[in-house]
Amino acid sequence: MSEVAREEIQSLSDCELAENFVTMCVRASATESSRSLQDSGAASRQIQTRLHREAQQKISTLVARARSLAPQAFQAFINAAMARISTLVLAERMAHSSLLYRAFDALDDLFGIDYGRDRGMRIDPSQTERLYEGAGRGVQTSYESILIALADLAPRPHARMIDLGSGYGRVGLVVGLTRPDMDFIGYEYVCHRVEVSRACAERAGLTAQVKYHQQDLADPIFTIPPADIYYLFDPFTQDTYRHVFAQLKDLGRTRAVCVATKGFAQQWFAQAIDDANWEQPLVCDEGTLGIFRSIPSVSTTRGITST
């Protein structure tokens, strides 16, 4: 990238910086898709490769500029960027396109999510949980998928959402930025992932409504708190699934809850529930997201006390 281009980035306002970041993410995704087309000629692929490289370089410079902002300015920037991304994702969905599926992974760099913390993890030989150590961005719920899931879930005002197996905290960060009225709790087994998630939430100014806790969800002593929405993206072994699902089924008998599932969680929860107490699942996001809503047999107050 030329020195002139770098100076232009340094002179951008927070909102202009956000708009440029989102635009470059979309451009990088588009050029990546174009250069991978089988029927494109060699010359076309070379052009798309050059454009992709230039977009990635500009994203890196924009991220560095954003990360240098004072906390309040960074929070204004990240809110503007997420608002623009949300608009684009929902418009893309209406157009039945999937161009943006992994377009916004660079948000990780803005938040400060470092998947390298997984390197050198010491796994207890008796540990059977699916920790996905070293898998990086590839196993994270994409930012596009999180925004689509939120649109399909349509949470009521001031709802509580719990992520069971929250990883490095992507879901909570999106919820906190797009729905600041909501209360979000993420439970994650790996301590350093919780530490990173908390640091990201603090940087984004979300600590009031977004909380992360280290927790072994297979612990028989631990009880999953009441919430309106529970989110699971294939985080457990099947034994832990059975333990968690038993609690979610009990919660669903006494209050209206929604369980949003991806990966194997969708299939296994469908097998675990009693159809009489649950609506037919809503399958969204090209079949990758299953939304299960309970039909409580006992009426209770909907209010939930924050913790």
- Major sheet, described briefly? 7 strands, mixed
Q: Shape, please?
A: globular
The low-confidence runs, each spanning 5 or more residues with pLDDT under 50, are 301-307
| Tally of individual domains | 2
- Strand proportion, as a percent range, falls in 5-15%
Strand order of the largest sheet: 3-2-1-4-5-7-6
Structural class: alpha/beta
H and E string = HHHHHHEHEHEEHEHEE
Radius of gyration: 20 Å
Number of helices: 10
Q: Which fold name is given in CATH as the topology of the largest domain?
A: Rossmann fold
Name of the CATH class of the largest domain: Alpha Beta
Q: What's the count of strands?
A: 7
What percent of residues adopt helix (DSSP H or I)? 40-55%
CATH level-4 homologous superfamily of the largest domain: Vaccinia Virus protein VP39
Q: What is the CATH-assigned architecture of the largest domain?
A: 3-Layer(aba) Sandwich
Q: Cα distance, first to last residue? A: 48 Å
Mean pLDDT: 85
Topology:
Elements: H1 3-10, H2 14-35, H3 42-67, H4 71-94, H5 107-111, H6 143-153, E1 160-164, H7 170-178, E2 183-188, H8 191-203, E3 210-214, E4 229-233, H9 238-254, E5 258-262, H10 264-272, E6 282-284, E7 289-293
Parallel strand pairs: 1-2, 1-4, 2-3, 4-5
Antiparallel strand pairs: 5-7, 6-7
